[in-house]
């Protein structure tokens, strides 16, 4: 009976064809009807708040599904509920209407929602603009063009004004401001740092998360390159080239089951993480081997299939929840309204393509064999991505959000991020159970009352082309230097972490492995292992947990063996992927000596697969292996 209500509303959709994808979109749009205002301009999906006003939140609910609807209509499809959005354009932009969206001010959330609206005019003018009467068109263009003289954040937001002007240009509006649009594009080009990568802001910003790809920048560049190709051919070609280069790195963020590695903010956008691959197809960008059209199709559709089958991503009526794999407000940002998750509708952009497009005519292919069992250093985001041993994850040092964001230490500062195990966020600050300290070295100077985790990483770099090295300064008299070493082919399921701790105060440390599903097969909480039953294991400087999700563990390899292993049952709803998790952890006490303390750990991770429903046979032998500290790092330890 534990699973009698656990199916997703979209469980039966195979999501393999264009028709399947269209049905999924329609099934997402239909439930919105009962949440739509009488005039169509607002969609109210819940009562949780954001830092911006409620009208803007309900505009968000209205606008974000347009990414999918406009794509469907642009590709020759139809939707019986389209009139709801046409009515919404009329009433939302009319100052005399009770559903008026309100005039835009500087740095207004309404600007974000202009992106989808501008896109709809650019690709489906005949469906959204042409049916409007002259008075409505006048109001519409005045409202949309109202952002041209307003201040905007110096981030990916500038793309939203580009798209507003792009839409205005395609409908022949006098409110189109070409000077403003090209100035914005020129400035956005200053974010570019090479090899296809752009940071989300000016020099000094070291934020290269999904906003640098599917959520905003890469997606926007690729769609612009198609829609504006005739008017801006040189820039369009440059954007296509960037997309081609970026794809060769971005593919390493996906696994064979379609999951993308959770990293950074705004993860409630879910399968928007794969919209880059749809934008590649929309822009007709052919990629180098092994990224064939069949591979691109597989990357996109497997990700959407994965999310269509996650029951916690949807309410029973088919509307989206706020969270990741289940409703979870601990991981959200203060700009996440109930309508925010519909940013995922960007991934329906392939519906704008004809059925004869190579994306749709190609036979779907699995994740490329040539990219399996590989490790790749990604210099710009300061990531090392690997899928050795069947575990897709990345090591990370050097990124942080350039402005205050809830749980930013968890979203950017962890040592590793996994496509299978996700990451955890704190639900409090009083105990290790509340901390959700997976893949981090947590430090306490008050005996475990409160904890600090890495947030602002400094002096981060790739060293010897093989590992990451960085510094962290949690207090003025405490320094932590960290080396992160990816798995080797000889020991593929362990990665190495080495920390040099120098402290002027007494500290408690807790270093976590990957958090893992923490229940037994009968649904009860994991208990210490007995016989063949999966469970937790604690012995000396080792801790491990095994369940239907696979195995996670951590081993102290330090010469003085000062750390004790413990499998901590984290507080519910801290991990993004599973609501009940166990975290293998190493614990130690440290004095205030001026001498360096070296902490060396091997971290084990082996996810389950759909075929085995748990850790693959033979994992115990892999667990007995131990990685070797590279001689350059070993020499520093001995010095």
Task: Report on the architecture of this protein.
The protein is α+β, with helices and mostly antiparallel strands and 639 residues long. It has 2 domains: 18-368, Glycosyltransferase, CATH 1.50.10; 373-638, Distorted Sandwich (Beta-galactosidase, Chain A, domain 5), CATH 2.70.98. The chain is 28% helix and 17% strand. It has 18 helices and 19 strands. The protein has helices at 18-29, 54-63, 66-74, 82-92, 110-123, 125-128, 134-144, 158-170, 178-189, 217-227, 233-250, 275-282, 293-308, 358-361, 408-412, 432-435, 619-624, 631-638, and strands at 192-194, 197-198, 375-378, 383-386, 393-396, 416-418, 441-444, 458-463, 467-475, 478-485, 494-503, 507-512, 516-517, 536-539, 542-547, 550-556, 564-569, 581-590, 597-607. The strands form 4 sheets. An 8-stranded antiparallel sheet has the order 8-9-10-11-19-16-15-14, with no helix packed on it. α5 (110-123) runs parallel beside α8 and α12 packs antiparallel against α13 (293-308). The longest helix is centred in the middle third of the chain and has 18 residues, at 233-250. 55% of the residues are buried.
Question: Under CATH, the topology of the largest domain is which?
Answer: Glycosyltransferase
The biggest sheet, with number of strands, parallel, antiparallel or mixed sense and barrel status, is: 8 strands, antiparallel
Q: How many structural domains?
A: 2
Structural class: alpha+beta
How do the strands of the widest beta sheet line up side by side? 8-9-10-11-19-16-15-14
CATH C-level of the largest domain = Mainly Alpha
